[in-house]
Write a structure and sequence with these properties.
The chain is mainly α and about 400 residues long. It is built from 16 helices and no strands. Helix 4 runs antiparallel to helix 8. The model has no long low-confidence stretch (mean pLDDT about 85).
Length: about 400
């Protein structure tokens, strides 16, 4: 038990430091793009969407390879490679002289992958059925805490220059890599490993494996549309709040810090209790409902204080993801967990190829100076509709699973 708890703590710290490094740069991205290109906010948002899609395209190709390799050779080495690549990505941005170099940095980061794929498989390795949702929720809590510290710190550091947050992010990522090198244990026993297979470790092969499990197909599809919806927030927040309320990098960072507080409370404190009381299936319904309401209201807010009020129901949507992921994990063999997590991450990256250009494109269209209809909240309305669609798609599968949860 103590060994498992130590492993969960390690993954928690790993993801926490990663997300601090990611969150630290978000408030400054609009200013950095405009510094390199001298364009308006609407056009900068479009570039931001393309940068995110570039990163996601590389992850779409390489995430299942990491998942398959971790099933064959263990989680540790793949986790360390991911962490080192993140540090290199930030260093390239620090010295980037043109917008093209930002794309180079995103390509490097995407190829090296993300620690999330292997971290999810690591959690699946060490968790029994009763602990899965709680442990996956700890990853969500790490994201929340990381977004408390990261964006706030990024907003503060941005006052000293647009490159300073990236310097700090690089240092944190590389320190995390060193920490993992000396501390991380292996979670996948030799007898539970399986040979690497190129047919499974590619985007198409991974989707074939996921979609061959008919029980989880509707759940995967529902996640697909929720992930696309999430980019109304993830890809647009800095540009949206700068456009609508003229927020500075610090104000953007503080608002994202509040999002982090709420996500941490929901997934780290409330999730386990809610799942224990109502079950994973009802927790999924509850989470999807809150997501839809939160998205709708974010698109309609008219004052800065309303943003903070609406973040609360939006964060409560965090009941859905870990619960849904736990349900799918419970329907998958132990020696296929890495492939499942790699496939889910790859699906998330596919939505991250589609979502950012879609949502920032809609934002740019409705905020462009020459556009007659001005409505910066349009991406959030689309996001709310996609959340409702996700509920409808998942409903039948969740009802079938209800007797087992």
């Amino acid at each position: 038990m103590k060994g498992k708890q130590a492993a969960v703590r390690f993954i928690f710290i790993t993801i926490l430091i990663d997300v601090i490094g990611i969150g630290i740069i978000i408030p400054i991205i609009p200013d950095l793009i405009q510094e390199l290109t001298d364009v308006d906010n609407a056009t900068a948002a479009w570039y931001g969407g393309l940068l995110a899609a570039t990163y996601a395209t590389m992850q779409f190709i390489f995430a299942p390879i990491l998942g398959g390799l971790s099933d064959a050779y263990g989680r540790r080495n793949l986790l360390l490679i991911s962490l080192f690549g993140l540090g290199l990505d930030y260093l390239v941005i620090v010295f980037a002289p043109t917008l093209a170099w930002l794309f180079v940095a995103r390509i490097i980061s995407g190829i090296c992958g993300s620690s999330l794929t292997v971290a999810n498989a690591y959690i699946a390795d060490i968790s029994d059925a009763k602990e899965r949702a709680k442990n996956f929720g700890m990853i969500g809590m790490a994201f929340g805490l990381g977004f408390i510290v990261g964006p706030t710190l990024g907003g503060l550091l941005g006052a000293f220059g647009t490159r300073v947050p990236f310097m700090v992010a690089a240092a944190m990522a590389l320190l995390n890599w060193l920490y993992g090198y000396f501390v991380v244990p292996e979670s996948l026993a030799a007898e539970d490993r399986r040979a690497f297979n190129w047919k499974r470790a590619n985007p198409i092969g991974t989707f074939k494996v996921i979609f061959s499990n008919k029980i989880i197909v509707p759940l995967v599809l529902s996640l697909f549309f929720v992930y696309i919806a999430s980019h109304a927030t993830q890809s647009n927040w800095s540009f949206y709040t700068k456009e609508k309320f003229e927020w500075s990098a610090l104000q953007i960072g503080l608002s994202l810090g509040f999002v982090g507080v709420m996500v941490a409370l929901v997934q780290g404190v409330l999730l386990g209790r809610v799942v224990a009381k109502i079950g994973e299936v009802k927790a999924v319904y509850l989470g999807f409902g809150f997501y839809a309401i939160g998205m709708l209201l974010l698109g309609l807010v008219s004052s800065p204080w309303m943003v903070y009020a609406v973040i609360i129901p939006y964060a409560l949507g965090g009941f859905a993801g870990p619960s849904l992921q736990s349900l799918m994990t419970g329907q998958t063999a132990k020696n296929a967990q890495g492939e499942l997590q790699g496939g889910l991450t790859n699906m998330m990256m596919l939505t991250a190829i589609i979502g950012p250009p879609l949502m920032t494109g809609i934002f740019g269209y409705f905020t462009h100076p020459e556009q007659e209809v001005y409505f910066p909240g349009a991406p959030f309305i689309l996001g709310a509709l996609l959340c409702v669609l996700s509920i409808a798609i998942a409903s039948r599968a969740l009802q079938a699973l209800k007797p087992r949860v």
